[in-house]
Amino acid sequence: NTLCLPILFTPLVDPSEHPEVVAELHMAWSSRWSWSRGVKVPEGIGKLKELQILEVVDIRRTSGKAIKELGELVQLRKLSVVTEGATKQKCNVLCDAIQKLTCLRSLTVNNFLIGSGVTLEWLHVVSSPPPLLRSLKLDGCLGEIPGWVGSLIHLVKLRLSRTVIKKEGKIMEILGPLPNLMHLRLGYGFYSGEKLAFKMGAFRNLKKLGICDLAKLRELKFEDGTSPQLAMIYISWCELASGIIGVNQLPKLKQIALGPYGRVANLAMLQSEVDAHPNSPVLRLSEERSHHDLGGTVAQVGEATEESSSLHPEPAAAGGSSESVVTTNVSQDDLLYTYNSC
């Protein structure tokens, strides 16, 4: 029930159509190794009524008719598509098809080409999202988080990248109440603000949080009564010049991991807060202390200069601070596992 290779497709197609379908699939799979990140799905895909997994569909190269037929895959549980280069008309057809997939548990929509004129804003017109979604990954410019995301009461994993969200309040308003959200990863270009505060009562079941490559973010704050189940925080490619505030508000915290270019103000203070935490969490560093420490002065949000926001710092001077910070030796494989788990 998985469409990954052409050989799995052909037994389910009428024998008289085998030559044509096999030829199309062979061409699609061969071109998979070109610049395209997905495959062209042939017309007739709607006949596969028992198909459960379909990935990765290149919407640009797939015909409008075949895109429409995706909505006929009534047993589909996992769908992954790339829309870069696709017309708005095809994206609208895809939107209609997605709304018909009532059994869908996992949806991934990618548009990696920022500035190409093609965005994911067509997702805002969804009125009836798949009600049983447990995993949602959106990589592309949305402008705002679609309101329907807040209705996904079964959602467990959410990853958002390149969405260019400008208002912090909308993030908490839509995502904060999700009752079953456990894994949240905010990736490259998701948010353009300097401060991200997790509000009281929000994210009641969140366990893993990943903050990756938010170039303008300066402060990560956890207010009293937020994220009571949060156990792991992973930060990379961010410079938190105002630090991580409110670690002591997270009763179930087990680990804070700073990955590549994950840098915070006054690392020694963060370490002391971790050491004093009643749940005995650990602070894990992927590199030497000097690579993660922005220094002893905690800047207020808005004070950071362009020079201090560089994510490619020069090596630290040999005579730097001698304050000791307890770290756990972490392999790159361990940190990659942590990153992918968020």
Notes on the protein architecture:
Keywords: Repeat. Residues 302-326 are annotated as: Disordered. This is Disease resistance R13L4/SHOC-2-like LRR domain-containing protein. Pfam families: LRR_14 (PF23598). Residues 37-283 form the Disease resistance R13L4/SHOC-2-like LRR domain. The chain is α/β, with parallel strands linked by helices. It has a single domain (2-341), classed as Leucine-rich repeat, LRR (right-handed beta-alpha superhelix), CATH 3.80.10. It is 18% helix and 20% strand. The chain contains 7 helices and 17 strands. It has helices at 18-30, 64-69, 88-99, 168-175, 267-276, 289-292, 332-341, and strands spanning 2-3, 53-58, 78-82, 106-110, 135-139, 157-161, 183-186, 195-198, 208-212, 219-222, 232-236, 238-240, 243-245, 255-258, 262-264, 282-285, 328-329. The strands form 3 sheets. It has a 12-stranded parallel β-sheet, sandwiched between helices. A 3-stranded parallel β-sheet has the order 8-10-13, with no helix packed on it. Strand 16 (282-285), helix 6 and strand 17 (328-329) form a beta-alpha-beta unit. The chain is elongated. The two termini are 28 Å apart. Mean pLDDT is 81; it is low at 1-10, 29-34, 304-310 and 312-334.
What is the architecture at the second tier of CATH?
Alpha-Beta Horseshoe
Q: What distance lies between the first and last C-alpha atoms, to the nearest angstrom?
A: 28 Å
C-alpha Rg, in Å?
A: 23 Å
Number of strands: 17
How many individual domains?
Answer: 1
Largest sheet, in brief, is: 12 strands, parallel
SSE-based structural type? alpha/beta
